[in-house]
Write a structure and sequence with these properties.
Order of helices and strands: EEEEEEEEEEE
Number of strands: 11
Strand content: over 45%
Largest sheet: 7 strands, mixed
Number of helices: 0
Shape: elongated
């Protein structure tokens, strides 16, 4: 069993900053790609940023230059530093991980966190 738990969401004014954290725990053998997705009310869940175990990053165009994803492989943590926040960044942010478990390390599984709300006020 693997759990992803996000923290760090909240209410911030336009132009402000927030840092999201996600902790992975459980029967983890290794974690491949980790990332952040977001879902605004009435919209689909969209990719925000991903990072491989080797540190290669990928960002949605809408957040490039404002958001930075990072991870601590030793702690099974991934972070999202969000700067210059805009009202359109308001959404539930979900942590995502591609995990190989100790009982079946040859097969990667996708796991999601429960989500954390980010609200950017005007």
């Amino acid at each position: 069993q693997v759990q992803l738990v996000e923290s760090g969401g909240g209410l911030v004014q336009t132009g402000g900053s927030l840092r999201l954290s996600c902790a992975a725990s459980g029967t983890i053998f290794s974690i491949n790609t980790m990332g952040w997705y977001r879902q605004a009310p009435g919209k689909q869940r969209d990719l925000v940023a991903t990072i491989t175990s080797g540190g290669i990053t990928n960002y949605a165009d809408s957040v490039k230059g404002r958001f930075t994803i990072s991870r601590d492989n030793a702690k099974n943590m991934v972070y999202l530093q969000m700067n210059s926040l805009k009202p359109e960044d308001t959404a539930v942010y979900y942590c995502h991980g591609v995990v190989r478990t100790t009982y079946r390390p040859a097969v990667p599984y996708t796991y999601w966190g429960q989500g954390t709300q980010v609200t950017v006020s005007t």
